[in-house]
Design brief:
This protein is mainly alpha-helical. It contains 20 helices and eight strands. The strands form four sheets. It has a two-stranded antiparallel ribbon. A two-stranded antiparallel ribbon has the order 2-3.
């Protein structure tokens, strides 16, 4: 949480006092562990709160892997076809096979992702036990702390479920050190996840003095998401309806959409009315991982003083992702597709003009065709103003165009005016922004609610939710402007829907809207899988991208067994095949 740190571990015993007191007693051999806290201290109000804060800290996957973070930039966005790994073939090379759907079970980042989720679960369980055993907590504080810990545990298990399918379920009732490693993995995690979120929803307060804490409405939103992933549409519809009507942020703001799309991704506007649940960040704490340490690679390459980060050229949006923002003359997305699954937006006549293979010193004429304005808040393109830095120069900010294409990431990038005030520059790169990452934001909830309404047959209600999201994107005050003339940087055209048509048409519309609104935020792969269209969509994506990036995607394919990652082989080796069974296809 912003400005909160995990309690520092302190030595509890003075060596000199220890010697004087115990030198002549048998207890001298019973040396308390140093650099640790006694049970009495941990069970104090401050100790229990500190354990809870430590559980929040694990949301960012600290101490494990950049791939363990909740932004799921590899597992959700790269594997979802929104972005390429970026940079060059030799840099963080194990991601190369991940984006080709060839993840090996012995991959270190795969294992670290698994470990990071269980570290969060262990911290949540420890917090629950400390709270239940504490004599210093009021009944109100005890209930609230347990509810927060269960909310966080629900999050970590939700991540394990959608990444791996099955996993051992361990809660606070299980005694660590006495056979816990023999708990057999189960695919029946959703009932446990629902129970945690439901307990949190029923017992958490609406507001708190700390904006980053989970509250009642964050729990309700996450519960609705869990229902949606199980196709429990009636349950999802009911809880989303309540959340949309009554929900407020932990700092007391009625849920709503910020007026300008770019303000979602601006550290100056953290914990706004759209932020339902976010990983908090801070700077100058002695550890840059308290900033967005998981995003430190995901900046344009070699920008110098003209741009952010200076490193490392990862997470470059795909050609297909850019093309998705092409719209018809009336400002609506291109929803059609060819017989082979190729989306109409990837047809040659519709593809967005790019500078692939064009040097920054060479001339380049920008695309004049109509585009959804969210493209230039999501994707860094040649000739378009890049936040408050400069117009994107093209190849000079790309490490290897032949390998990764011409685009740069743009969401969750800090502004020039924020350098060293909302960034932590105390480490090897300038790319540690103190910008919160939204695990769930209100536009996401509106679109999930629209899905549930469509499946329930309530197309008029779904239309209203979708149009709320599109109306915000259509606010001309939020369009990307030329820094010199103030004119729009591209031909931005966007309108709302007058109708969703029939149910099949409505599904296409809401699914496309999730792509346009939530691109590069880690949702896409999981959406495609739960919709049952991953094979068709991702193979069409691979076919398209391989036309230009043949050395990266040539011969790659997606099959239904790729919907789940392999269980890390290191974990199977530790626990045995009677506990963990490898997923099919690996």
């Amino acid at each position: 949480m912003k400005k909160y740190q995990i309690l520092k571990r302190l030595s509890l015993v003075s060596a000199s006092a220890f010697m004087l007191t115990f030198a002549c007693k048998d207890q001298f051999l019973e040396v308390p562990p140093t650099a640790s806290l006694a049970q009495a201290q941990l069970s104090s109000k401050a100790g229990v709160e500190g354990a809870l804060i430590g559980t929040y800290a694990q949301l960012a996957g600290k101490g494990f892997s950049r791939l363990a973070a909740p932004n799921n930039w590899v597992w959700g966005s790269i594997r979802g076809g929104e972005s390429n790994k970026g940079t060059d073939p030799g840099d963080y090379s194990n991601i190369n096979v991940m984006q080709r759907y060839e993840v090996p079970a012995n991959d270190g980042d795969l294992n670290s992702t698994w470990q990071a989720k269980y570290e969060g679960i262990a911290r949540a369980n420890a917090t629950i036990n400390l709270a239940n055993g504490s004599k210093e907590l009021s009944a109100t504080d005890k209930t609230r702390i347990v509810a927060e810990a269960r909310f966080l545990r629900g999050h970590f298990y939700f991540e394990l479920k959608r990444l791996f399918g099955s996993a051992p379920y361990v809660d606070e009732t299980m005694d660590y050190g006495k056979g816990i490693e023999k708990v057999v993995a189960t695919a029946d995690l959703y009932s446990k996840i629902e129970a945690d979120f439901k307990f949190a929803y029923d017992n958490l307060p609406e507001t708190s003095s700390a904006a980053g804490r989970a509250n009642k409405w964050a729990a309700g939103s996450y519960l609705g998401k869990a229902y949606l992933y199980q196709a429990k549409y009636a349950d999802a519809k009911a809880i989303f309806t309540t959340v949309i009507a009554n929900g407020k942020t932990t700092n007391g703001k009625k849920y709503g959409l910020v007026s300008k799309f770019a303000e979602i991704f601006n550290a100056e506007n953290d914990n706004n009315e759209e932020a339902i649940f976010a990983v908090q960040s801070s700077m100058n704490t002695g550890n840059v991982n308290n900033a967005n340490g998981f995003d430190d690679l995901n900046y344009p390459y070699n920008t110098g003083s003209d741009g952010p980060g200076n490193c490392c050229g990862f997470f470059q949006p795909s050609f297909s992702m850019a093309n998705a923002y092409r719209v018809s003359a009336d400002g609506l997305p291109l929803l059609g597709e060819q017989a082979d699954g190729t989306p109409d937006y990837n047809l040659a006549a519709n593809s967005v003009k790019h500078d692939y293979g064009v040097a920054s010193s060479a001339g380049f004429e920008e695309d004049a065709n109509p585009l959804d304005p969210r493209i230039d808040h999501t994707i860094g393109r040649r000739g378009i103003q890049y936040l408050d830095w400069i117009e994107h120069p093209g190849a000079n900010w790309i490490r290897s165009q032949p390998y990764a294409g011409p685009y740069s990431p743009k969401k969750y990038i800090y502004y020039k005016r924020q350098e060293n005030t909302l960034t932590d520059g105390s480490s090897w790169t300038r790319g540690y922004a103190t910008m919160n990452f939204n695990i769930i934001r209100f536009a996401d909830v509106l679109l999930m609610a629209a899905e549930a309404e469509i499946e329930a047959g309530s197309l008029a209600t779904a239309l209203g939710y979708i149009n709320q999201v599109r109306s915000r994107a259509a606010n001309p005050a939020g369009f990307v402007k030329n820094s010199k003339t103030g004119a729009n940087e591209a031909n931005y055209v966007i309108s709302t829907y007058s109708s969703l048509g029939d149910q099949a048409s409505a599904r296409k519309i809401v699914r496309m809207e999730r792509l346009l609104e939530l691109a590069t935020e880690g949702h896409r792969f999981f959406d495609l899988v739960r919709w049952g269209v991953a094979s068709k969509s991702l193979n069409a994506y691979l076919k398209y991208e391989s036309k230009l990036l043949v050395t990266k995607f040539g011969g790659a394919s997606y099959t239904d067994t790729d919907a789940l990652l392999p269980i890390p082989q290191a974990q199977i080796d530790i626990q045995g095949t009677s506990v963990l069974k490898q997923n099919p296809g690996y």
